[in-house]
Amino acid sequence: MNKKILIVEDEKNILFVFSRLLENKGYKVISAEDGLKGLELAQDELPDLILLDLVLPKLDGFKILNTLKDDENTKDIPVIIISARSDNESIEETLKAGAENYLVKPVDRNKLLAEVDKYI
């Protein structure tokens, strides 16, 4: 069975590149371009891993992460934050809230694949 990865990312180019990269490695990829849709997909699809941007339309990544970690059905899904925000406060806040890791954009493809493999 293919492992399912949810990518929540509003930048279409990044979403496309990450999706193709992961699909080529055999993962089933589902995606959302805004926070509300991303949260709905996470709760409905229960993916094996979530790649989550922080700056999103409709609902930001911090709120999504906190909601997922407070929900009995989604609290154990690993979440990797991928964001252009590189300030220590954002990094510390998300790791404290339960994210597995925090990658700063631009993310090297090999680094991304290594992180995905680590948590799936």
From TrEMBL:
Q: Which residues form a coiled coil?
A: none
Q: Which residues carry this modification: 4-aspartylphosphate?
A: D53
Q: Enumerate the Gene3D superfamilies for this protein.
A: 3.40.50.2300
BP term (GO), one: phosphorelay signal transduction system
Segments forming domain Response regulatory: 4-120
The highest taxon in the source lineage is Bacteria
A Pfam family annotated for this UniProt entry: Response_reg
Question: What keywords appear on the UniProt entry?
Answer: Phosphoprotein
Q: Where are the transmembrane segments?
A: none
Role: May play the central regulatory role in sporulation. It may be an element of the effector pathway responsible for the activation of sporulation genes in response to nutritional stress. Spo0A may act in concert with spo0H (a sigma factor) to control the expression of some genes that are critical to the sporulation process.
What is the protein's given name? Stage 0 sporulation protein A homolog
Annotated organism of origin: Halonatronomonas betaini
